[in-house]
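thread: overnight batch results

M.L. [08:02]
morning all. the overnight job finished for the chain we discussed friday. pasting input first so we're all looking at the same thing
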Amino acid sequence: MEGRAAESSAEQYSAERCTDESVEASVEAMFREERGRLLASLVRRFGDLDLAEEVASEAVEAALVHWPVDGVPARPGAWLLTTARRKAVDRLRRDQVYAARLAILQVEAERADPASPADAGGDLPDERLQLFFTCAHPALPADDRGALTLRCLAGLTTPEVARAFLVPPATMAQRIVRAKRKIREARIPFRVPGTDELPQRLPGVLQVIYSIFTEGYVASSGPRLQRPDLAEEAIRLARILRRLLPGEREVAGLLGLMLLVHARREARTGPEGEIVLLEHQDRGLWDQAMIEEGRGLVVAALSGGLPGPYGVQAAISALHDEAVDVESTDWPQIVALYDVLLVLTPSPVVALNRAAAVAMRDGPEAGLALLDDLAEEPRLRGHHPYPATRADLLHRLGRLPEAAIAYREALDLACTEPERAHLRRRLAEIEQPG
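M.L. [08:03]
and the structure it wrote out:
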């Protein structure tokens, strides 16, 4: 009997622990999804990002205590917002420095929002668009914008953001504190820019999201080529922005571009993490549903006027994804799109990509001539794809000693181990044939 009783108690404990863990997982998943909305509402109400983060965390802690007992509320986001607001008010009341400020905030809040949706049992208001533009304000340094966006809108912890930027957590913590201080001291407004400002400000927001994605697509350094977690966070942020700004074609273009590129993620590396070039990828591994969604967004991005750079890049990626193999890819159309992109955003990196496309259309000699024209471009120094592309074209032309020199140059500049391993293999094909 004692054994059965002990067994029953163990089963009950296991069930309770499982329930607690499932509730905790539910809270964490929901909070990660709702974090941006919650912080945006709190910053809008109290004007303090630090305070908003602290009381949001306290609200989650309260949820982990109450929800396993009382059950998950019908509107969990609204429950968290109401709890966080109350904690913020309590904290401000205890701080005499903020006493007068609290009174002003309450008056302003009542005038602007006499019946809070959360207090009335409604859904959590979505004010993330203001937070996007606050985090990506041009007054902030570029790295700080990306860090703050990942911290506040993607919900990454400071150590996770530090890993994304390849810096120590203490350095990243200082960077985030500095960005928040800049917002506070410069009185950066928590608002969506007016229609006259939006064309100048939106590209900065899109650039922050795309920078996060590119770090996920090809990591700056480390043992892995890809960081799928970062790429997926960037896509999630772009989806939010697309819902909030459905009429902005470049938002559609950016989301489409990232989906069309990310659709190939499973085929880009082999079982050991090695690089698999486009011509050798198993296209059956490409995510067709993601490609179809991306193609639809390309149509939206290119309809209704002159295209933007993200829309054009998305169109290029769509042509790659639609082809059954490299040989049947519409290289003339891709070169034409790069011509448009060079007009929209003239840069040596775009010129490098165009040269590679010309090599596929007209042969390696034509591509190499264009690369030689870029040889003195200072912005390509230290950019390993330039010597790597040049090495491949020289290899295809049979100019093996020159190709070996270019491969060694690229090898010295490559930052991730899969890229270095790929370049070592290519170099070995020249130096140790057979």
